[in-house]
Amino acid sequence: MNRDLAAMRRNYSKDPLSEEKAGDCPFALFNHWLADAMDSETLDPNAMTLATVDAQGQPKARILLLKGFSKEKGWVFYTNYASDKGRELEDNPNCSLLFWWENLERQVRIEGRVQKLPEQDSDAYYTSRPRDSQIGAWVSEQSQVISGREVLEDKLAVLEEQYEGIETLPRPPHWGGYQLLPTQVEFWQGQPSRLHDRLRFRLEKGEWIKERLSP
């Protein structure tokens, strides 16, 4: 396979993003864009890339699902606290999120710091999950090396027997939520001739400053 990647391109043609259209609040604009993505044919509109940095300064990125959003709590997601990303966030809470909505030719990049959600919030979300997902959180020692898939299947069988007849499992102590509180939010709208619209909201002394960036 020797595809000509350099020749792969397409022109962007959606409506532009003006300062007036963007408004003055990044949370309101994100809420509007997320609603547009949910109404479109975009697959997994709440999918996002989480980027962290490890102790050696190596950036790491992976895709997660957004599980909550508000002006008060920021962007909410759940994971294994003992996973690579959990340990990285413990050592360095600075991170970023990236949303890409292909059908709308839009992306949103968010920078800020995370903190763990209150335990009652994690409990509430965990018990709302399907039972298989609840058990999965107990089975997986996320990011740890295992000898083969049979390790997971054997542990699953043990836990299925242990919790037989129990519909709602207790939340594992190593699993819970984070909230990302933003310091910068950038909205990108694809435009013709690669002259894309980029509007950045930057938090300064408790106020959001809106700036246009060159593409």
Structure, explained:
By secondary structure, the chain is an alpha+beta fold. It has six helices and nine strands; from the N terminus they run H-H-E-E-E-E-H-E-E-H-H-H-E-E-E. Strands 1, 2, 3, 4, 5, 6, 7, 8 and 9 form a nine-stranded antiparallel sheet that branches. Helix 5 crosses helix 6. The longest helix is centred in the N-terminal third of the chain and has 14 residues. The chain is globular and about 60 Å long. The model has no long low-confidence stretch (mean pLDDT 95).
Mean pLDDT: 95
Please estimate the helix content. Answer: 25-40%
Gross morphology = globular
Unreliable stretches (pLDDT < 50, length at least 5) are none
Question: What is the straight-line distance between the termini?
Answer: 32 Å
> What's the alpha carbon Rg, rounded to whole Å?
20 Å
The number of helices is: 6
Q: What is the name of the CATH superfamily of the domain at 14-118 and 176-213?
A: Electron Transport, Fmn-binding Protein, Chain A
Name of the CATH architecture of the domain at 14-118 and 176-213? Roll
Quick one: biggest sheet?
A: 9 strands, antiparallel
CATH topology (level 3) name of the domain at 14-118 and 176-213: Pnp Oxidase, Chain A
Strand residue content: 25-35%
Structural category is: alpha+beta
CATH top level label of the domain at 14-118 and 176-213: Mainly Beta
- Order of helical and strand elements: HHEEEEHEEHHHEEE
Compute the number of strand runs: 9
